[in-house]
Specification:
Elements (H helix, E strand, L loop, with lengths): L5 E3 L1 H31 L7 H25 L1 E3 L15 E6 L4 E8 L10 E3 L3 H6 L7 E6 L2 E10 L1
Parallel strand pairs: 1-2, 4-5
Antiparallel strand pairs: 3-4, 3-7, 6-7
């Protein structure tokens, strides 16, 4: 089965590469040293430090494998590929909530990079999916837990 392509901005890709490098070069050594220290304590059958270090090593290796798979299956969104005037992954969009008359700006990113606290929403989220392919001046509606919400698209960058 082919793995799903992961859409990333260049910044998102660079952050994943940086994190992977940190895990492989720094964290692996730290965990390895912790494991060696636990082994030096003796009897492994009753050594909680050894068990903790082995569990941490397993989690670390799992995270490394996961990041490598994400990077292997990633596709970087090139700025030039973003259609002028239409919202796509990599677009920064200013929208106005029609009912509340509140304005917000969001960057549309792939699901791996989504961070609502930083106003980065996934193209797979209800709002992100509603915005994809639309142009400035259009109004979109999407279903949220609070009900149907309507946004007017003010600007696309």
């Amino acid at each position: 089965m082919a793995e799903k392509k992961i859409m990333l901005t260049q910044d998102g890709y660079d952050k994943l590469v940086e994190k992977l490098d940190y895990l492989k070069s720094v964290r692996r050594i730290e965990v390895s040293e912790r494991l060696k220290a636990a082994i030096a304590l003796g009897d492994l059958s009753e050594n909680s430090e050894y068990d903790d270090a082995k569990n941490e090593q397993g989690k670390l290796e799992g995270e490394i494998v996961e990041l490598e798979a994400k990077l292997r299956n990633s596709e970087i969104i090139q700025s030039a590929a973003v259609e002028t005037g239409k919202i796509s992954i990599g677009s920064t969009v200013t929208v106005r909530d029609v009912e509340l008359d509140l304005t917000d700006t969001y960057m549309i990113v792939g699901s791996t990079e989504a961070d609502p606290d930083d106003n980065k929403i996934s193209d797979e989220s209800p709002l992100g999916a509603a915005l994809i392919g639309k142009t400035a001046g259009q109004t979109v509606q999407f279903h949220a837990p609070a009900g149907v919400i309507e946004f007017e698209i003010l600007e696309i960058k």
